[in-house]
Amino acid sequence: MTTRVRAATDDALQMRHLLYGHLLSRALVVVAELGIPDLLADRAATAAEVAERTGSNPVVLQHLLRSLCAFEVFRETEPGRFALTPLGATLRADAPATARPTALLLGGEVGAAWDGLAGTVRSGRPAFDRVHGTDFFGYLDAHRHFREVFDASQAAGVELESETLVRAVDFGSADTIVDVGGGDGTLLAAILAAHPRPRGVLFDLDSVVSAARRRLTGAPVAHRIDCVGGDFDASVPPGGDLYLLRHIVHDWPDDRCVAILRRCRQAVTPGGRVVIVDRVAGAADAGDEARMTALMTLYMLTVVEGRERTAAEFGTLLDRAGLTLDAVVRVAGDTVALVARPGPRPR
To answer: Does domain 3-95 have CATH number 1.10.10.10?
Structure first.
């Protein structure tokens, strides 16, 4: 076999690996839905034992578990008996920064939207809207269980980033931190726990803030957090000297992002900062994080109207909003904190 033919064959095989990759995701979703990582948390078990406890077919389940051994999710300790690996343990419900709610999210309504990707490519509109008859955030408000799964996935994501983020950005010198679209308050509470000086304002939709108040009750920093309901498409609470937008900008198209950032610029006190935490696309390397960011772009386009942006695209948004980039701080992988300050008037 010539070098050229061998290379072509290798490329063809690699392409097939990519094409069949969605089966791996579906297999992981099934494992999470059945709660198998929790069943194997303390000891190995046979496929028959797991099948009995999950109401599954033992023959098919054994093939599922054995297939995932090839990806180091499980380990076959002896024929037909399976144990959980450290990688697989991240799908346990009680794992730190558990991946289980993300698996449930991708396997449900979000997964159904992926089948409409071709329509998104043609129309430029999120497939989620067409598949479910409403936009993603409207669906969240109307479906309590979906909201609970989404919030759990978001909280796990915060847990992945918060330890690094609270140290990477100078939050300690702020007097008032406004967490715009701050969800259940997990991140804001972590920031305030690490920095005794600032007070915090948790700003999100009324329904989200109501749940956050209940969650924060009794938290050591609860007395330093004001929960404010509202819509950042209309206004943001004034008077903060640091406005934080973690994974908010990537949810929206450019014009809407500019409008949100302009409101933050108008609300921030003189000398204050606007901090955007998001992935930055377009990295020169093709490592795992760059691939993840590429996939997240497709995710955002299919589910909402957002996208992951390059450094230059973020620069354009900031310029249009009247903000000047002051610093870029790496948080984790391709995720960075873009620290901006009010600059020339918005264009």
So the answer is: yes
